C-alpha cells in the first residue's frame, strides 16, 4: 500500500459531526441518489468512492446546499441543516469545500485568491497577512504569489483552491477530487496536509479517482454506485467486498 498514514482511528467518542440521512435526489426524472446514509465523526477522514456518474459530486452538492434533496436530511452535530442556505452552512458550521472543477478566481493573483477570502473571514489585518503567507509557503506557492491564477498549471490551481479552502479554518472539509491534475510529490504533500488537519480535529470527506490515495488516508470509506451506497467500512474490508470489486475496483485492484 502506498501508505502514508500510520494510524487509523477505530473509535470516535463524540456524536457524528456530519450526517447524511436518507438522501434521495431525482434530476430530470432520473433517480440520481437513492437513500444515501453515512455519518462522519469529529476528526475522521471519510472516503466516498465510486465510478463516474455514481452520484458523488451530487452528494457533495446536497451536503453543501448547492442542490436540494427531494428526501432526506443533512445534520451537523445532530442539528438539522437541510434548510440552511449555502453561505449559512459555510459560515455557521465552518464547512469548507474543494469543488471537482477549477474554481480559482481567474483574474486575481495567487495571493489575492487567498486575500479575497481572508478579508471576509479574518478581522485582524496582520493575522490576514500571516495566514496568507503561511498557506502560500505550506503549499509551495510563494514563488507564484503574483501570477494571475488563470495562468497557473492544473496542479498549481488545485493546490491554490485547497489552500484557499483553509483560510477560514474549516471544521468540516469536503474535498471533491483534490488530487486531480496533481503530480505524485504534490499528492503526498496534500495527503500530509489532510492528515495534519485531522490531527487538529478537522473532519474530512474526500472523493477521488486515485482510489489508492484515498484509501491510504481514510479511516472509513463508502462505495457508491448507481446512486446507492453498496458497502461501507474500513479500507481493507471494502476492497474485499465482491460487489465493490465487481462495480468499482475491478478484479486486480489492491492496496
Ligand atoms: N445538474 C444536473 N443536471 C442533469 N444531470 C445531472 C446534473 N448533475 C449531475 N447529473 C447527473 O447525475 C449523475 C451523477 O453525477 P455526479 O456528478 O454526482 O457523478 P460523480 O459520481 O461525481 O462522477 P465523477 O466521478 O465522474 O465526477 C450523472 O449521471 C450526471 O450526469
Ligand atoms: Mg464528481
- Poorly predicted runs are none
Largest sheet: 6 strands, mixed
How are the strands of the largest sheet arranged? Answer: 6-7-8-3-9-10
Give me the CATH architecture, please: 3-Layer(aba) Sandwich
Distance between the termini: 4 Å
Beta-strand content: 15-25%
- What level of helicity do the residues show? 25-40%
How many helices? The count is 9
**The named CATH superfamily:** P-loop containing nucleotide triphosphate hydrolases
Mean pLDDT: 94
CATH class: Alpha Beta
The number of domains is 1
According to CATH, the fold-level topology is: Rossmann fold
Describe what you observe in this structure:
This protein is an alpha/beta fold and 255 residues long. The protein has a single domain (18-249), classed as Rossmann fold (3-Layer(aba) Sandwich), CATH 3.40.50.300. 35% of the residues lie in helices and 24% in strands. It contains 9 helices and 10 strands. The chain has a 6-stranded mixed sheet with strand order 6-7-8-3-9-10, with helices on both faces. Strands 2-1-4-5 form a 4-stranded antiparallel sheet, covered by helices on one side. Helix 3 (110-121) packs across helix 4 (125-138). It is globular and about 50 Å long. The termini are close together. The model has no long low-confidence stretch (mean pLDDT 94). It binds adenosine-5'-triphosphate and magnesium ion. The site of adenosine-5'-triphosphate has 12 residues, from helix 1.
Amino acid at each position: 500500500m502506498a501508505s502514508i498514514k500510520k494510524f487509523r482511528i477505530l473509535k470516535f467518542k463524540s456524536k457524528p459531526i456530519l450526517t447524511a440521512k436518507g438522501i434521495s435526489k431525482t434530476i430530470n426524472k432520473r433517480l440520481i441518489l437513492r437513500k444515501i446514509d453515512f455519518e462522519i465523526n469529529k476528526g475522521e477522514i471519510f472516503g466516498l468512492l465510486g465510478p463516474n456518474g455514481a452520484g458523488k459530486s451530487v452528494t457533495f452538492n446536497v451536503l453543501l446546499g448547492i442542490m436540494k434533496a427531494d428526501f432526506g436530511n443533512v445534520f451537523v452535530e445532530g442539528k438539522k441543516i437541510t434548510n440552511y442556505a449555502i453561505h449559512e452552512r459555510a459560515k455557521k458550521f465552518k464547512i469548507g469545500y474543494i469543488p471537482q472543477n477549477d474554481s480559482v478566481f481567474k483574474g486575481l493573483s495567487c495571493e489575492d485568491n487567498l486575500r479575497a477570502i481572508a478579508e471576509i473571514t479574518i478581522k485582524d489585518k496582520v493575522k490576514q497577512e500571516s495566514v496568507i503567507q503561511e498557506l502560500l509557503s505550506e503549499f509551495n506557492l510563494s514563488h507564484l504569489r503574483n501570477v494571475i491564477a488563470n495562468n497557473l498549471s492544473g496542479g498549481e490551481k488545485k493546490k491554490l483552491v485547497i489552500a484557499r479552502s483553509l483560510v477560514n479554518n474549516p471544521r468540516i472539509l469536503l474535498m471533491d477530487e483534490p488530487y486531480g491534475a496533481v503530480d505524485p510529490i504534490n499528492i503526498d504533500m496534500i495527503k500530509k496536509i489532510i492528515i495534519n488537519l485531522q490531527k487538529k480535529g478537522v473532519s474530512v470527506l474526500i472523493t477521488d479517482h486515485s482510489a489508492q490515495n484515498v484509501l491510504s488516508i481514510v479511516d472509513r470509506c463508502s462505495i457508491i454506485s448507481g446512486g446507492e451506497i453498496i458497502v461501507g467500512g474500513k479500507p481493507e474490508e471494502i476492497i474485499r467486498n465482491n460487489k465493490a470489486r465487481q462495480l468499482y475496483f475491478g478484479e486486480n485492484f489492491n492496496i
